[in-house]
Each structure stands twice: as C-alpha cells, then as structure tokens.
C-alpha cells in the first residue's frame, strides 16, 4: 500500500513557519506564550547570576589565599640550573673559542662578560643594595624592612671577582691563554643551597678532557664559595634588586690550549646527575684558545 505523501509548496512552508513564530490562535510566540518566555528568561538570568557569583567567589578565595610574593606550587623539588658566561653556544655545549692574535675574536668575549657584569657595578650596587649582610649564614627575612615594602638583597660587586672583575684587566685574560669564565646558579625561590649546619655551596671545576692542557684553575671569590647570605631568594616582587652571587674561574691553558670543563656547584642538596636536565647543578663547556 503506497503512502500518500502530502506535497507542500514553499508558500505553505513559509506560512507554517510564520505560525510557529507567532501563533495568533493560542497566542504563542515561538511555541511558548509570552508569560512562559518571561519565566524562562528569569530562570536563565538567575542561573547565570548564581554561576557568576560562584565563579567570583572561587577567584576571590584563591586570590585571598595566594601570596603575591611566592608561587604556591612547584611541580617538583627544584634543584637549580647552572650557567656559564661567556655563553657562546656551539652545537651542543657552550664553546668558548677565541684567537689571541685576532683582537675582534677575543673582544667579543670581553663584551659579553662586561655586559653580564653590568648589574654588579659597584656604584649601582651601593645605590640599590645599600645594606650590610652578615657573611656565612642565611639571611632570613620575615618582614619587609627595605624601602617600598620589600626585603633586602645583599650586594654583590664585580670587584669580588678579583682578577676576573674586568677592572684591573679589562681583557678578562682573553688577550692570552688565561681566560676567565663566570659561573652563575639560577634562582629558585626559597631554596636553601645546603642544610643549616653545613658550609656554603662552592664551585668545583674539573677537566673532562685535555687535562694535560690545563695548568691551573683559580676561583674568585676564594674557594669558589657562594656565600649563604644571598639565600634564600624571596622572589622578584619581594627582592626587586636581588643579584645572584657569582663565581669567576680563571684557567691557565698550556700546550694545545684546549680543554673540556665541567663546573659543578657542590652542596649536599644540589643534584647534578639528572639525565633529563644536563644543566642541573653543573655546566659543561669547552675552551679553545687559538693564536
Ligand atoms: C660603574 O658605573 C659607573 C656609572 O655608570 C661608571 O662610571 C663606573 O666606571 C662603573 N664602575 C666600574 C667598576 O665599572
Ligand atoms: C647607605 O646607607 C647609609 C646609612 O644607612 C647612608 O649614610 C649612606 O649615604 C647610604 N649610601 C648610599 C650610596 O645611598
Ligand atoms: C693582557 O692584558 C693585560 C691587562 O691589560 C696586560 O697586563 C697583559 O700584558 C696583556 N697580555 C698580553 C699577552 O698582551
Ligand atoms: C645535612 O645533609 C647531610 C647530607 O645529606 C646529612 O647527612 C645531614 O644530616 C644534614 N644535616 C641536617 C642538619 O639536616
Ligand atoms: C672537585 O671535584 C673533583 C672530581 O669530582 C674531586 O676530585 C675534588 O676533590 C673536588 N674538589 C673539591 C675542593 O671538592
Ligand atoms: C678556603 O679553603 C681553605 C682550605 O679548605 C681554608 O683554609 C680557607 O679558610 C678557605 N678560605 C675561605 C675564604 O673560605
Ligand atoms: C688567528 O688569527 C691570526 C691572525 O688573524 C691568523 O693568522 C691565524 O690563522 C688564526 N688562527 C686560527 C687557528 O684560526
């Protein structure tokens, strides 16, 4: 038995739609009476008002409990990374290559170091961090006693780097085969680089290859220590003028004048054998002096 399909013209369809939009027979608009539409609108207004309220409350509670000075969550126990300057990258590691007979090649290294040391300028530090810190122990600060509701940062000046400060020798040893490098440990908020009783962390550089080419390794400040008074770091907002303590290392190269070096920040709480992060606790670089 064949079903009889009613063929409807376009005009009829339009009329149907018109009926749907405004049906004068039972007084509905889009299938609902105006009163129902008012109820529906009121329902949605109330619904969104409540949602907005909940959302605002959640944000408010979050903001209220967050300290603006420190991040609340760390995804793991952080061990700081270590970096070296001049930071002239080769294919994999930092490659410090220069030619003593080519002034342009070694002044490039001096410029990098000079720029890096700019925040450590003595007059700058006297101005920004005019504060005396007790060496040899952590500088815990519970209150904000420095100007502008901040915490004090201990000054670190370039002259602490001795012959590697660029003051007496503006060539940093790059006019011959006694180059200086500067080692910096990244900041980690609230990180204490050794447990309370032990000594300050220090930089220890070892020659990985070409040890016969390295005559002497000198550290500045003495013993390569990073004084405890620079820790803990409370964050950029709390300590806007913080400068990382640095250690300069001067190498005396002889013979073939090339070597691969690893500099490690040694402390009982700094790990350096993380295969996923080769810069954790240490930095590896090569020195190559041509002439
Ligand atoms: C520090 O900076 C001042 C002014 O910018 C400059 O005159 C002075 O020579 C700098 N000091 C050093 C040791 O570079
Ligand atoms: C550093 O502070 C002392 C007193 O705390 C003050 O006499 C001196 O002028 C200050 N120096 C600078 C460079 O602001
Ligand atoms: C390198 O520079 C220093 C300081 O300017 C100077 O005393 C030394 O003689 C220079 N060495 C060479 C090999 O030019
Ligand atoms: C410091 O760390 C060392 C090595 O991890 C540990 O043997 C020592 O007990 C620690 N000391 C304190 C006071 O936590
Ligand atoms: C530096 O590291 C080397 C190799 O790990 C080690 O033999 C040496 O004793 C260390 N020096 C210091 C002062 O810790
Ligand atoms: C450097 O280390 C030596 C030997 O470990 C020690 O006698 C000396 O006091 C240390 N110097 C500083 C400034 O820490
Ligand atoms: C170093 O520079 C000098 C002068 O520019 C040049 O003669 C020499 O070949 C360079 N040495 C190397 C290893 O490139």
UniProtKB/TrEMBL annotation:
Pfam families: Na_K-ATPase (PF00287)
Any single Gene Ontology cellular-component annotation: apical plasma membrane
Record's keyword terms, sorted: Cell adhesion, Cell membrane, Disulfide bond, Glycoprotein, Hydrogen ion transport, Ion transport, Membrane, Potassium, Potassium transport, Signal-anchor, Transmembrane, Transmembrane helix, Transport
Subcellular location(s) per record: Apical cell membrane; Membrane
GO function term, MF aspect, one: ATPase activator activity
Membrane topology: Single-pass type II membrane protein
NCBIfam families (UniProt xref): Na_K_ATPase_bet (TIGR01107)
Protein name: Sodium/potassium-transporting ATPase subunit beta
UniProt source species: Mugilogobius chulae (yellowstripe goby)
